[in-house]
Amino acid sequence: MSKLGRALFRVHQLISSVAITNRNAIFASSIRSEPLCRSHVGWVSSFSSNMQSLNIDLSNEESKRRLFNRLVYRSKQRGYLELDLLLGKWVEEHIHSMDENQIKALVHVLDLENPDLWKWLTGQEQPPEAVNINPVFSALHEKVMNNLKSHAAPETRAIPGQPWVRGWDDIKRGRDSPISGNQ
User: Fold this and answer.
1) What's this model's pTM, rounded to 2 decimal places?
2) Less crowded by CB within 10 Å, the N or C end of the chain?
3) What pLDDT does 39 receive?
């Protein structure tokens, strides 16, 4: 029983020391007037880049190369294959001709969530005005819509404003065909 009592006493000491440390950290951060955690702004995730912390230094070639490589990597490795291909190729083609404002606009596009960005670029949903006036988004949207118009038959595309829910075998409407999609 004494072992249990000593263990509980040690746990109590540990919790008390952590509470004192946290209280001191909170007091120190309030003196510096810095928040301990970053707040969420709108629909941008907490892991997105903060424009104040984004260091866009185009003064020398080394910093420009690092920034370009980081943005190309972010555009190619989003985890959404369609966007990886679309954004990666577009960014590779255009990043060397971008100025500081266009790079900031690109970062705003890269901070958008994948499903929303895909729906907005393909015309399934109307983007918010803040996204719609972004010059990088506008260029990407124009490229996607031109590709759809030139490479996809109108009957295979969804109605503007409607999601793409049809499957590869929807054209088969026989007795044994699925009701919808490729089930």
Assistant:
1) 0.60
2) N
3) 35
CA distance 66 to 36: 29
Residue 53's CB is within 10 A of a number of other CB atoms, namely 7
pLDDT one-digit tens code per residue, 119-134: 999 888 899 999 999 9
Q: Given the structure tokens 């399934």, which residue do they identify?
A: 124
Handedness of CA 51, 94, 82, 118 (dihedral sign): positive
